[in-house]
Design brief:
The protein is mainly alpha-helical. The protein has four helices and no strands. Helix 1 packs antiparallel against helix 2.
């Protein structure tokens, strides 16, 4: 597996924000995800496992099983490696 040498917090949070805005359709759910990212910025830490669990829960609850692009899969692998 070829992972990044480093995945800085701000880069990870920015990538997640773009990802959420592209995929989370329900406004209240999007606001919840973005709020968590704001909290993560302030605390200077991130729990990607928590985010992943919330995303899986959202997809199941909303029956929104959007596919991941190859680029998104790579981002998720890197997030787990550095922030999981």
């Amino acid at each position: 597996m070829n992972t990044r040498i480093d995945y800085k917090l701000d880069d990870a949070l920015n990538d997640l924000e773009v990802f959420f805005k592209a995929h989370i359709k329900r406004k209240s759910e999007l606001e919840k995800f973005l709020s968590y990212l704001d909290e993560s910025r302030k605390a200077k830490r991130i729990s990607f496992r928590f985010i992943h669990q919330e995303l899986i829960s959202y997809r199941s609850k909303e029956s929104d099983f959007f596919p991941f692009s190859d680029e998104e899969r790579k981002m998720i692998e890197d997030l787990f490696y550095f922030w999981g």
